[in-house]
Write a structure and sequence with these properties.
Layout: H1 3-12, H2 15-26, H3 33-44, H4 50-61, H5 68-92, E1 96-97, E2 100-101, H6 103-106, H7 109-128, H8 133-155, H9 163-187, H10 195-219, H11 230-233, H12 239-244, H13 251-271, H14 279-290
Antiparallel strand pairs: 1-2
Length: 294
């Protein structure tokens, strides 16, 4: 089976909850009709939904059903993620997202920027309904870290940094939102949870997910959905270049990066070893194993 086929099998286990989250993504959108349909199409287009998925599986592995509040907070996480994608496409000058023209391509960059801002505002509006300052603080800090990751990446273009700097950037840009999805979801549970283990699992999984994506940027063929080697062309030197120590000869770096990926997958598996044995824990383990598919 392909990665997509295997992933969809895992995703199917949480399809009921993911469908509710998708409905919540678009239920409060109130904007000019010219933009409303394209924005809703972007939000509901086929997507991995990986951040809410791992939070759903982790929660259900603990033998808990998700409350409406938990599903609402995961819709907030997805709104923030989608806002970042809209802004990323403008920064990266990409025109395609999820197999279709993105908002900037359909309209212009001005509409793209304000649409991303609109989704962030919508996510903050949803958050205030919780009245939970701890969650608001956590999500606000995560958005700030995502911005810092992008800022640092821009200023470090065409520089071969250290692997520690790469991991720190990866945490900021990707992993902290994984962690935040899990922590905010589980903090709304009526049961007690080990926050450190949850945090470690989210960060290790997020780092592994991004490392895999960075490897694929070097190894996959270009397509409309995802151009190949665009990072290196843009001067964004990720793990394969850093570990190969050359921007024009990264083959050895790719193999070393696969070892790095496997280490984070191993760490993430260790973080969930104490979860009860059930189909949801197995789905998390299968997802982590699937990340080796590069």
């Amino acid at each position: 089976m392909t990665f997509s086929e295997e992933y969809n099998k895992i995703k199917q286990i949480a399809q009921q909850e993911l469908s509710i989250i998708e409905d919540k993504l678009v239920e409060n959108i109130d904007i000019r009709k010219e933009l409303m349909l394209p924005l809703k199409q972007l939000l509901t287009a086929p997507s991995k939904r990986v951040r809410p998925l791992i939070a759903i599986l982790y929660t259900k592995a603990n033998k808990e059903d998700l409350s409406n509040e938990q599903l609402e907070i995961l819709s907030v996480i997805e709104l923030i993620h989608n806002a970042s994608l809209i802004h990323d496409d403008i920064i990266d000058e990409c025109k395609i997202r999820r197999g279709q023209k993105n908002l900037s391509a359909q309209f212009d960059n001005k509409i793209g920027v304000i649409s991303g801002d609109y989704l962030l505002a919508l996510s903050m509006e949803k958050l205030t309904r919780f009245g939970n300052l701890e969650i608001i603080n956590k999500i606000s800090k995560t958005i700030k870290k995502m911005c810092i990751g992008e800022i640092n990446q821009n200023f470090d273009r065409f520089k071969i940094g250290t692997i520690d700097e790469y991991i720190e950037k990866t945490k900021n840009k990707t992993a902290y939102l994984f962690e935040t999805a899990l922590i905010c979801c589980l903090s709304l549970s009526q049961n007690q949870h080990d926050i450190n283990k949850i945090s470690n699992f989210g960060i290790n999984t997020g780092i592994a997910f991004q490392i895999r994506d960075d490897i694929l940027n070097f190894t996959q063929n270009s397509s409309e959905k995802k151009p190949s080697k665009n990072d290196i062309k843009d001067g964004i030197y990720n793990a394969p270049v850093i570990l190969g120590n050359k921007e024009d000869n990264y083959t050895s770096g790719i193999e070393k990066t696969k070892i790095l990926l496997n280490n984070y997958i191993k760490n993430a598996k260790s973080d969930i070893k104490d979860l009860p044995e059930n189909e949801y824990k197995k789905a998390l383990e299968n997802f982590l194993e699937l990340l080796k598919n590069v």
